[in-house]
Amino acid sequence: KAGVTQTPRYLIKTRGQQVTLSCSPISGHRSVSWYQQTPGQGLQFLFEYFSETQRNKGNFPGRFSGRQFSNSRSEMNVSTLELGDSALYLCASSLGLAGQGEQFFGPGTRLTVL
Amino acid sequence: EDKVVQSPLSLVVHEGDTVTLNCSYEVTNFRSLLWYKQEKKAPTFLFMLTSSGIEKKSGRLSSILDKKELSSILNITATQTGDSAIYLCAALRGGGADGLTFGKGTHLIIQP
Prior knowledge:
The complex is a heterodimer of chains A (114) and B (112).
Chain A: E1 5-7, E2 10-13, E3 19-24, E4 31-38, E5 42-50, E6 53-57, E7 64-68, E8 74-78, E9 87-94, E10 104-105, E11 109-113
Parallel strand pairs in A: 2-11
Antiparallel strand pairs in A: 1-3, 3-8, 4-5, 4-9, 5-6, 7-8, 9-10, 9-11
Chain B: E1 3-7, E2 10-14, E3 19-26, E4 30-38, E5 43-49, E6 56-58, E7 61-66, E8 71-76, E9 85-93, E10 99-102, E11 106-111
Parallel strand pairs in B: 2-11
Antiparallel strand pairs in B: 1-3, 3-8, 4-5, 4-9, 6-7, 7-8, 9-10, 9-11
């Protein structure tokens, strides 16, 4: 069974640009959660999608948005990039809602904002 | 605001030692606590604990939740160099606003 895949793996952008990250969950998983990981703040929850609906949202500005498609693949978009957005962005999939069971993480997308 | 605090932040021990990692939480409508191991990139799931006082065990790793003390510990016995990683704990809240709050992790280094 293929694991969670994320594309691209690395990305370099400049301030003010926007970026779209993609996550393909494990086949059959309906929940996709997104996290931002930085050395200073650790792993922070961004949002969770389940059956194409955003179920939960973390404490991030509106520049961070996402969506989920009917095949459960999810995209995350960050507009008007800031230097502080440089981070490892991880997505995780699970059969049910996040936290009700095991979440499987993807390898992450390393975003660098210059 | 939900909070998860892990200690120590980093730990260096020798192979064969036993280590105990700590996690305390303050989470509204607490539902469960999860432990992950992160090597290089993607965290991998270790345990999910929902009931107080019941130990979960997997090989040399074990974990227990204390709901009275709002804390959990992760024990690793007979450590090996392959146990070197960042260990993350996360608390899940319920009540219609599910979401995981992660601690900053304990960076464990096992020296040969």
